[in-house]
Amino acid sequence: MPKHRGLELRGTVLVDLKRYEEAQGVLEELATSRPKEVTATELSLMLGLMAETELGLADLEQARYYAKKCVELDRNQVRGLRVLRELGD
Fold this sequence. Notes:
The protein starts with a helix and ends with a helix. By secondary structure, the protein is mostly helical. It contains five helices and no strands.
């Protein structure tokens, strides 16, 4: 399994477990280590995870930013939509 896939999976699990501080570190590593040639779907998942993490850490401005970027890339990305709904956007 490529490194970025492992990080994506680990970040997803950490977010789902609400371990946001750990997830933030993993997602930062994912953002710097993923290949440049990723699909919009892959990028939107990462942004959605980042949005959920920032929301969990109470950084509403960053959560909104990542969620909007996420949904711009994939209007059906559940994680970004969930964050926007929670923020009232």
